[in-house]
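Hi all, long-time lurker, first post. I run a small reading group and we've been trying to get comfortable going from sequence to structure in the token notation. Rather than ask abstract questions, I figured I'd post a concrete chain and ask someone more experienced to write out its structure so we can walk through it together at our next meeting. Sequence below, copied exactly:
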Amino acid sequence: MASETFYSPKAPVRWAHLINADEYEGKYSYSCELVLSNNDPSHKLFLDKLEAEFVALHGAKKARSSKGTPWKADKDDASKTVVRFKANRFENEDGTFSKGPRIVDAKKAPWDGSEIGNGSELIIGFTCYPWSRSEGCGITLQPKACQVVNFVPREDPGEQVAEGFEEQDGYSVADAGSYVDEFVSDEEALF
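-- Answer (accepted) --
Happy to help. Here is the structure in token form:
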């Protein structure tokens, strides 16, 4: 039986690893954090639905693991709640790896593969995976599809740093073919 698919409200994401799986302690997963505003009624309604689904899956009296609910108050901003989505990557019988969630743009066209940066606004389609351990129970929100409504490209910190350089006299990749090593004789250069 297939799990029910739920949809998040549109909200900004951070730490999105939805194109390529991220590695943590030897395990790979597709993940992101959805940052919800506690003042937005649609975000509050979504959190209430997550709580109701948790109770539907485990009951109201079962002990919760300290990591059992994938939504927590944002540690830097008390007016926000962060919801974590995560789907483990696994190896198929043929040696290939499972793919991440299907990603589409605002017009539902297939995503071009660009890495999704912090602040991009997404709607996430997901299923709830219930689990129980000795320390208690919980759920994992597994992303199955994402719609990128507003895109912010992932910044490469190296690009920003490189902008601070000025052009200098010296080695140039463009001139690399004409470089002659003065310590190599003509005979050695042939081999």
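A couple of things your group might point at:
The two ends are 66 Å apart (CA to CA).
Residues 33 and 81 are 10 Å apart (CA to CA).
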